[in-house]
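EI: anyone free to look at a 385-residue chain?
SC: sure, send it
EI:
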Amino acid sequence: MKIAHISDAHLGRQQYHLKEREEDYFQALEEALRLAKPADAVVITGDLLDTRRPSTRVLLKAIDILSGAGLPIYAVGGNHDYSHLRPEETPLRLLDRVRTIRLLCFDEADLGGVWIYGACAVPRSRAEEFRQRILSARPGSLLAIHQAVEGVKARYPSAVDEHTMPLKAFSGVKAVHIAAGHVHDHGASTTVPGAGGAVKVLWAGSLELWDSGDFETWDLSGGRWERRQEAAPKGLYLIDLAGRGASVEEIPLRPRRRMLRLRLFLGEAREAEEAFDEAARRFDEAGAVVKVELYGEVGEDLRPSRYAAYFSKALYVDVVDRTKKPRGAVVRAGSAYEAVERLLREKLGAGADVVAKALVYIRDGDKAAARKAVEEWLYAQMDRA
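SC: here you go
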């Protein structure tokens, strides 16, 4: 029995407010399901949708893609498309009713002698409840979850968050393999203490590049370009459940669009024009998404928006000024920013940090990440209440 493991499609996400990027996410799922044809079934380990309130258009397009797969599809709810506080409100239940997926939310499915047990996303404050539920997974089954696990090395999420489970939450689990979502790094893995020894947890990762940390990254310093990072790999896994074990085959996904992060290190402001001219000659191409970050110590305002015009072919260009001002230089926005931050802390207390974080995401064009940051903080407050 072969099961294709896909995760974190985030259908409906408009990265940088771009319709083209929203379409990329649909195409990524369509391609993943096409590559899953050798499997007998598909399991999607959460965040199939980017929000619990998707538009009708997003839902209809999701139904069209999922129905065209020609394979039975099982899914668990992720923190974006499901809430343990309001489990009935997830749009995944609608997809289940029209039989495009079967939602496994602390439930199991028999695939002809091979069992899948699905566990929807649960905050770490409910770790013991989570453990008691997954212990009902049959010996030799595939456990599908949407959680990070303490100790896994990943870029996103890079630290323990509300959906990171402690290792003890898996103590005694009887599954032979754990297919996981939530961590966006394709191929991230760890082991947990199962009933018969260590059980591997494997994350398929997001189907699309999530933010600039995933982008192909180049640095310009001292007149020289150096590639610091290839674009993060993306893909799915084919899990072969035979006998008492599981073997895994990786299936890579090809990139649909060039996503670039350019870091320009400047010695003084006048270098910016030459740097952008060179960057555009080298990287300006049709359909590309380009994020340019300016570093260094300069004595005057750079007005980042003027430099985006150097790129005439790219789909989208975002220029972010991260330069520092020499000591004694006048920073026009500094005092206003400090006043706003002080006011946030006076009015919101501990919530000021999450609001400030959300504002940074919004500045970078990532509304979904901003919403997620605020929602996770709110859910944490509700759990503590």
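EI: The two ends are 45 Å apart (CA to CA).
SC: 👍
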